[in-house]
Amino acid sequence: MKLPKMLFVLSMLLLLVPSAALAGDFDWIRDFNIRAEADPAGFRARLAARFNIGDVQINAYSATLKDLRTLT
Question: What Å distances lie between residue 53 and 28, 34, 44, 46, 50, CA to CA?
Fold first, then answer.
């Protein structure tokens, strides 16, 4: 009776620990949003420089995000 319980606990640990570690990978999103809200013009300029895209693509992307926010 003890062996199945130990196997269950071990399998739960193997499932939960990696998923918690992977969740930490998305911590950059919070910083990303803070920077975007603090300096929108600078943020847009950094996006354009980083991805080598123009202002038209950034405007289209921004409009798409605004549309998605209104849907939810």
Answer: 22, 22, 10, 10, 8
Q: Give the CA count within 13 Å in the CB-facing half-sphere of 4.
A: 1
Q: What is the pLDDT of residues 55-69, one digit of tens each?
A: 888 888 888 877 777
Q: How far, in Å, CA of 65 to CA of 4, rounded?
A: 49
The number of beta carbons lying within 10 Å of the beta carbon of residue 2 is 6
Looking at residue 21, its pLDDT comes to 65
Number of DSSP helices (H) and strands (E) in the chain, helices first = 4, 0
Residue type, 52: N
Number of neighbours of residue 5 by Cβ within 10 angstroms: 9
pLDDT at 15: 79
